Give the backbone structure.
Amino acid sequence: MIVAQQKPLEDIRQMARGFRRLLVLGCGTCTTICFAGGEKEVGLLATSLRSVLGQEIEIEEAVVQRQCEWEFLDQVGEAVGRAEAVLSLGCGVGVQGIGERYPGVVVLPGLNTAFMGLTEAPGIWGERCMACGDCLLHRTGGICPVARCAKSLLNGPCGGVQDGHCEISPENPCAWVLIYDRLMQQGRLEQLEEIIPVRDWKASHSGGPRRIVRPDLREMVEEEV
Amino acid sequence: MLPREARALPGRTDPAWAPVIETASGERVGLCFGCGICTGSCPLAPAMDMLPSRLMKAVQLGLKERVLKATAPYLCVGCETCAVRCPNGIDVARVMDAVRQAGLARGGPVPRVDIQRFHQWFLRTVRLFGRAHEGLLSAGFSLQQGRLREDLPTGWALMRHGRLALWPHFIRRRREVRRLFRAIGQRGGR
Amino acid sequence: MNGYGTALAVCTCGGTLCGRLDVERIVAAPGFASALVIHDLCLPAGSARVASWLRETAADSLVVAACGVPAAVQAVVEVSRAAGVAEHRTSLVDLREGCAWVHTQADQATAKALRMVASAAAGVRESTPPVPDVEVRPSGRVLVVGTGPGSLAAAARLKDLGCEAVLISGTLERFEGQAGEFKARIRTDQGVECHAVGAVIAAGDAPARMPAVQAGQRVAFLLEGDPWPSVTESTLSAALHLARDCGCRVLVLFRDMGVAGRGLEELYREARGSGVTFVRMEEGSLRIVEAGGEWVVTLEVPGLGSVTETVDVLVSGATDALQGTRGLAEVLGVAPRKGGWAPRERALLEPVATERNGVFLIGSARGPYTTDQAVRQGEAAAMAALSVAAPGVIAVSARASVDVERCAFCLTCLRVCPHQAVTTALGQTMRVLPAACQGCGVCAAACPAGAIQITESPNRRLLAEMDALMNGPPLGGRPTVVFACANSAVPALQALGRLRLSYPAQVLVVPVPCLGRLEAVHCVRPLAAGARRVLLCGCYDRSCEHLVGPATARRVVERASALAGTLGLDPGAIHVASLAPVDWHKLGQILGVSCDDGDRNGGEASKVTAHATA
């Protein structure tokens, strides 16, 4: 899932200054689960903003199921209409969704969208995937070197491994050490002997923003001509 | 099929032309809705380049150049089957006639010079003898068209069967017939 | 017996079925806790006997094998009530019109009957109780959009019928809810109004406003759009007036001339007689270029070649009116036709209704109707609206329901529903509106999580019935499975039965509410179980009550054929056929050919296709 963190209150306050009517809009899916932008966070943030911004601002609160669907955004059309700015507690996708659906209103990001990851333990989330568009997890024992290696190396560790940890971010284990251990555990070390060739990164974000069109699903909703 | 020269002409419409034909023919050309019954009835339609119903549409649109270049009005023999059958009561044959007159009035060569000549020989014999004389008509037409050699055997066969008189039949009041022709000529007819 | 808890009652229809089916074998069908033979289900004595027997068996479900007439259906309902068995746990199998009367060979017919009975039993065991009734309380108010003659006639008739007409002349901005309980938001010059109404009758915009035309100018009317018919009464009147009274040169370019209406033929003739030139356009034959304040119109006229006319004023009024209708249709949730008018399908079968219950379109919203046609439609719509909007309480049970545990909120069901019957609101789960749902099953086929189902026939019930149908005594040949649409193929099959026309016993019928209910897996499964062919028999595109049935069927067949190919099954064995409910003759041919032996490549398969698409 998408993991995000709320921006510091001071940053949010700076963004919200000057607007007289603000809508704080939460998201009921990813950012609720990572406790950054759900209903409770919306309530807390609105209260905090009211106390730091005082009389100058009128704050409304709402949460939609997801900010990345037009139909859900439509449900708060009236509230958006009343606001000068919308402070989104959704991920970056949601912030932009609001902007696309309601181009006349100013939209402010209340979160920093961090990564796609999983819940390692309650309260701890770790990045696992960078959406490179050409998954090679079958070749690395199910551990992603693109996302978990700071240098995204594809054929083994660099020389900077220190005590099993990455030289760039010492708090992280070296991804290739993890891969080695996993394959060893599975008795498939010979997999490491296969060289992963130089990649064409066009399928990743380096090739520009991506788009998927499923003609079979388009057929279901397309108007008959 | 329209002759190539006609098709190549720009199809610019002249909306003022349709009323001219309407006045000349006395028929309300606009009433035609293009059912095609006139074409279906016309015995000459298979030989026409512009079918009667299409010609009516062309007149409505004012396609003066194309209509005046068509040979169809010259093939019309005026049998009036079209007029009998038209659901809107339009006498298409009269419209054809009006188109022919418009072509002649404009001057210059007409699309079927041979047919025009045939008509002129016919009228010539009427003016001379007071009655049509096939002998002079066919001989004169044949000579003018330069087809004497092909027509001679036919002419000879017709004469042998008593169908082609050498000597014309003169009527008594030939002078009045000539006066008729003079009067028409004064009114601008040809 | 095995004690599954399902009881079987077989009615011999006064003994007449005994000659054509081996009733003893059917009564002895495996898998039933107890079985009974009677001869007179449709008589009070007969159904009473079944009820008391059923009570004794303490079975929790019941399959009745009899005929299919309404009296039998009613008898089963009464039996279930009297014996305390839930109605949804009962199933009636038509062994008469659906089997005995149409199959000539008794052993084959009996084999099929056994399969049908087993299928019903399997289905009944997977049945789910109906959704509890919801009370809809219409207030007697009906929204009337537009102020033309059709709308006014509707409003007047509504008043006579005891309803309140809410006439608006603003723009309808938002329209949601279900028949009996709609909420409409209208923007007027004074602001925004919200109305709660039971139904809406909408007429399109007034005839297009004419741009100012001066005397003597050259005018062309350009009437594109759906080619039925494109010339309106207002256009003819305007053209006549301009040509006859204003000395204008008037050209009318149209797609289709339809003057079926009082006074229209005379109007058309008068226009022609006054010098208006009418030219029919073929699609793609027109080109218009603006040059120095004038319009140069170039047209391909058959037989006359390319024709060019220059005009001062170009009126594409009909097109403008259509744009307005398209917007209205979108707000009302009704799909428009290509030319812009709505509704899309069944336009001639449903004179005023649309695919959305409670929404009625009349007059120029529907097509180029004349004033008095619009008035008649307005009155008809008022009477039709009465049934959903008259004050009172209506109890409705939704035919589809959402399992919120499985729902991932992907919104697919909401987007594909042809009747605007799925909704959600802030803080709410996905919900089916009972007065809007028509039970077609398109949502169930589209849902990736299987969360939304037709209550009467959830997917596991359909699959269980299909599997049981495919598994039984030999039929004398490989089976052909026919998915039969309730609106076309099912009535046609009933007609074949009543006329006692025979078709092969290898034909196994699976009724569905609409072909839109089907997915690729439904088509491939019978093939994998040994079927010779799978046929999807449904309505024509333009007749589908649910709009998308035939298109869905074609898409599903393509997908299923590809899937069949990868599974090593015959990819050419799945076909779609369209027919009208009265066309039993065509269905009989299709069924006969579909069971033909012989080479399949190009031979019989193409014959089936030829019949199917004829």
Remarks:
- Chain B has a mean pLDDT of 89.
- The two ends of chain B are 30 Å apart (CA to CA).
- Residues 103 and 110 of chain B are 7 Å apart (CA to CA).
- Chain B touches chain C through 25 residues (CB under 8 Å).
